[in-house]
Structures are given as structure tokens and as C-alpha cells.
Design brief:
- This protein has helices at 3-12, 15-26, 31-35, 42-54, 73-102, and strands at residues 29-30, 58-63, 66-71.
- Helix 1 (3-12) packs antiparallel against helix 4 and helix 2 (15-26) packs across helix 4.
- The radius of gyration is 28 Å and the shape is rod-shaped.
- By secondary structure, the protein is mainly α.
- The mean pLDDT is 91.
């Protein structure tokens, strides 16, 4: 997995950060407005936004005195594509297991073992 995807999935591994991403995907918001929604300090919310920004899940720009956070749908699509790749691998495995379990072909008969290493005599 590339470093970019590592950062992306690390950022999404936290419930607060996922919630921030969901909120700013719906509508851009100031860091102050986001901080008002969580039972944590403004600085803690800012740190979450910074992690999301480094993972390119959000972008932040200054407008006057406020820092406005907006979502980046392209990064969500990258995460989706990575998960779809893993899903494809898993589906291939389960289909192969299903084929093995539903195969009605009798197993090939192994040759009968003889006690004489030279083989049968006649």
C-alpha cells in the first residue's frame, strides 16, 4: 500500500475524523463551527483537521479570520477504489472455495498399493 493510502486509511480510522469528513462533504464549514460540535478543545479539532488535510481528504483555506474546511471527493474515490480491489481479491477466493465445495466430480482413484516393491508376479 502506498504512503498516500496509508495516510488516507489512518485518517479514516478515527470516528471523529470520519464525522468531520462527512460534515464537510455535505457543506464546507469553519474549524470553529466544527469545534462547536465536539466535546473536545478547538486545538484537538484542529489537529484532526490537520490529519485529514495531510491525507488530502479535506482542504483548508483562510477566509478573513476563519479557516474554512471543505471535503475532497477525489480522495474518497481513491479509498473506494482501493477497497474495491480488496473486495475483488476476496470475491475471487470465495468463488474458488464455492467451486471446490460444489464440484461433483469424484476424486481420481490412486493406484492400489502393493506390498511387494517389485510388483505383482504371475
Amino acid at each position: 500500500m502506498s504512503d498516500d493510502l496509508d495516510r488516507l486509511f489512518h485518517a479514516l480510522s478515527d470516528a471523529t475524523r470520519r464525522d468531520i469528513v462527512a460534515r464537510v462533504m455535505l457543506q464546507e464549514q469553519s474549524v470553529s463551527a466544527l469545534a462547536a460540535r465536539y466535546a473536545m478543545s478547538f486545538a484537538a479539532v484542529q489537529k484532526h483537521v490537520t490529519v485529514l488535510e495531510k491525507a488530502t481528504l479535506v482542504s483548508k483555506q483562510r477566509r478573513g479570520r476563519e479557516q474554512i474546511v471543505s471535503g475532497n471527493p477525489h480522495s474518497i474515490l481513491r479509498a473506494r477504489e482501493a477497497l474495491e480491489t480488496y473486495e475483488e481479491i476476496w470475491r475471487g477466493r470465495t468463488e474458488r472455495m464455492r467451486d471446490l465445495l460444489t464440484d461433483d466430480t469424484p476424486p481420481a482413484q490412486a493406484p492400489a498399493a502393493t506390498s511387494d516393491p517389485e510388483g505383482p508376479t504371475s
